[in-house]
Amino acid sequence: MSKDNEILEEFTSKEYEHGWSVNYEADEAAVGLNEDIIKWISAKKEEPSWLLEWRLKAFRTWQEMAEPDWANVTYPKIDFDKLRYYSAPKQSNKPKNLNEVDPELLAIYERLGISLNEQKRLQGIAVDAVLDSVSVATTFKGTLSKLGIIFCSFSEAVKEHPELVKKYLGSVVPMTDNYYAALNSAVFSDGSFCYIPKGVRCPMELSTYFRINAANTGQFERTLIVAEEESYVSYLEGCTAPQRDENQLHAAVVEIYAAAHAEVKYSTVQNWFPGDKNGKGGIYNFVTKRGICAGDHSKISWTQVETGSAVTWKYPSCILKGDYSIGEFYSVAVTNNYQQADTGTKMIHIGKNTKSRIVSKGISAGKSQNSYRGQVQVMKRADNARNFSQCDSLLMGDRCGAHTFPYIDINNPSAKVEHEATTSKIGEDQIFYCNQRGIATEDAVALIVNGYAKEVLNQLPMEFAVEAQKLLALTLEGSVG
Amino acid sequence: MLSIKNLHASIEGTPILRGINLEVKAGEVHAIMGPNGSGKSTLASVLAGREEYEVTEGEVTFKGKDLLDLAPEDRAREGVFLAFQYPVEIPGVSSTNFLRTAVNQVREYRGLEPLDAVKFLSLMKEKMKLVEIDQKLLSRALNEGFSGGEKKRNEIFQMAMLEPTLSILDETDSGLDIDALKVVSNGVNQLKSADNATIVVTHYQRLLDYIVPDYVHVLYKGRIVKSGTKELALELEEKGYDWIKEEIDSAATV
Ligand SMILES: Nc1ncnc2c1ncn2[C@@H]1O[C@H](COP(=O)(O)OP(=O)(O)OP(=O)(O)O)[C@@H](O)[C@H]1O
Ligand SMILES: [Mg+2]
């Protein structure tokens, strides 16, 4: 083994820090998946009949579909009948505000560094905390509602704002879109709902923090963000899960709707349990995220820092329907040990003068596989569409893989599409240079990796960027030494 | 301060250094010259702790410690500084951020408090003047897209920031224009004290007009084959290396 590998070995051996779990009394569905379970979930959530019908339709479609196998990932077949589709901490009566939320549940979030106590929060961030299948608390609802902003759990939105949910649910990601989206549509349990009325700039970051706690339970959350004309919102999503030997499924759907001149920034720091050093356990993260720039001059920007999960299958996309609309995708995906990530984006140019920008930075270490998969599609009437894609891969060691799968489909001669790709290795000479200035190797790697990912990290809101930098260093810690 | 005894080192099985002996005392300036490929950079790398080189024989002590026993970052923290012949680029990492990490890790090793942002920036300002380096250069990614001369100047700026006890300057003069050479040499001279020492590796007498050496050594085929005072450099400038090569090579064939 060369020195390089030895170094990498050491650097990749850091443990996952959110691997703990707690015991609480849970309200659970029986194991398995059938129409009765779906009816049970819907009843549990006291849903209107149209929503139950919608779920059942999705379920029937899903049954007809086959699990996709085109992604560059391998994992044992999931037995969907062995999973539990709903698990919620028992709460005697529904808390009406934060003070009524079970302190034990709040403590879980405290331990993750997410304070749900509004007074304690320094930064202007409103949080919706989702634990397993339900939202346990949403902060700053009062402040936001004064501006007409709706920020609540999905379940609550179904009850309080059924007309909005009915109008937008499935409008961006149809229930039949793909295997996991159909599954999610059938069994989704909770998630966040956010509505920004016309002309309102949301004054604080909105965020959802997802936590899987229960064993053997899939998490299927649903997020819906609607930004009316000339509105603006920045949305953050974070996630962690306990360290368990078996794999757990997380199949979420996020839909974003942006009306004319609206702008939505969606940032994710994904830190699901990645499995242990030998590839045991970890989350299967099969997620469908899509936004539609429905109105002219609208803009949707995805930023993701993907450090966790055993297997990631995720392509946050933009449908650029409005003229002059803009879609952006900034991604850092880090894989270590036996992690596999197949992630990227789709930019679909429909409107005239639409623009998209893709910046993808893959970092592979250990024996991991990291693939970028991106599609740029320019439709017939999309005159003067512009795309710029930059896909960089950084390899640490020689047992990992980096792959790039760009698909370009152009149906309008005025389109300008640029694609740049680079692959580099973290250089021993770079590390030595840092060492020679007194910098320890682990810190050198953190510096180099953060420098490499800077363009993407710069897109994140301040406090998230710092968090993400630490996370990158932590994920790769032990892989160079 | 630095004592090198019978140092042998090889890379991938090829011996490059074949018995180097050198004593450097505090307050001294040593110049190392020698034809291309003679092992000058190798010597510098071995002293700095580059892992690719295997030390097969000999010993090196630095301030009484076994230098070869220390990790590269600890050698740096002990006060060994290498101005690289070919400084590497680190994309996305600003010089400021890089140096702050370096300075604070060195300070930590020496049991000093880390410098806060204000103190660090004022230290930077002070040292920037010394080598007349532009603020703009330092806010850019480290060495990325820097011209050859800018890279070299940045090396000496880093040296000024880290205040080493032993500085090894590997062909710092190559790539510098005439004015820059004066500025940078002047910076190096100002950093000199009775407590530190400098080894300059160079091909040109010109640099030695500015940084005046106490001793000049000629390295050839992995050995120091001739040592003298600054007059030796003048002689080399005039006559080249052939006469030394001949001396050594004919001696070897006998
Ligand atoms: N990986 C390697 N395998 C074999 N030989 C090597 C290797 N790396 C360096 N060398 C050789 O070691 C010798 C010494 O190189 P070094 O860089 O120390 O020379 P130098 O004296 O600094 O030369 P210059 O004046 O050109 O900078 C050269 O002949 C070089 O080709
Ligand atoms: Mg050299």
TrEMBL record, chain A:
Q: Pfam families recorded for this chain?
A: SUFBD_core, SufBD_N
Which GO biological process annotations does it have? Answer: iron-sulfur cluster assembly
* Organism domain of life: Bacteria
Describe the location of the SUF system FeS cluster assembly SufBD N-terminal domain by residue ranges.
147-202
Query: InterPro entries under this entry?
Result: Fe-S_cluster_assembly_SufBD (IPR055346), SUF_FeS_clus_asmbl_SufB (IPR010231), SUF_FeS_clus_asmbl_SufBD_core (IPR000825), SUF_FeS_clus_asmbl_SufBD_sf (IPR037284), SufBD_N (IPR045595)
Where the record annotates domain SUF system FeS cluster assembly SufBD core, the positions are 210-451
Stored NCBIfam families: PRK11814.1, sufB
Q: According to its UniProt record, which protein family does this protein belong to? A: Belongs to the iron-sulfur cluster assembly SufBD family.
* Name of this protein: Iron-regulated ABC transporter membrane component SufB
Source organism: Algoriphagus ornithinivorans
TrEMBL record, chain B:
> What InterPro entries does its record include?
AAA+_ATPase, ABC_transporter-like_ATP-bd, FeS-cluster_ATPase_SufC, P-loop_NTPase
Per UniProt, what is one Pfam family of this protein?
Answer: ABC_tran
- Every copy of the ABC transporter domain together lies at 2-246
Q: Which GO terms describe its cellular component?
A: cytoplasm
Question: What domain of life does the UniProt record list for this protein's source?
Answer: Bacteria
Tell me which UniProt keywords the record has, alphabetically. ATP-binding, Nucleotide-binding
Looking up SUPFAM superfamilies in the UniProt record yields: P-loop containing nucleoside triphosphate hydrolases
Q: Which SMART domains match?
A: AAA
Care to name a GO molecular-function term for this sequence?
A: ATP hydrolysis activity
**Listed PANTHER family:** ABC TRANSPORTER I FAMILY MEMBER 6, CHLOROPLASTIC
Please give the family membership noted in the entry: Belongs to the ABC transporter superfamily. Ycf16 family.
> NCBIfam families under this entry?
PRK09580.1, sufC
Q: Which protein, by its recorded name, is this? A: Iron-regulated ABC transporter ATPase subunit SufC
Instruction: Tell me the organism.
Output: Algoriphagus ornithinivorans
List the lineage, top down. Answer: Bacteria, Pseudomonadati, Bacteroidota, Cytophagia, Cytophagales
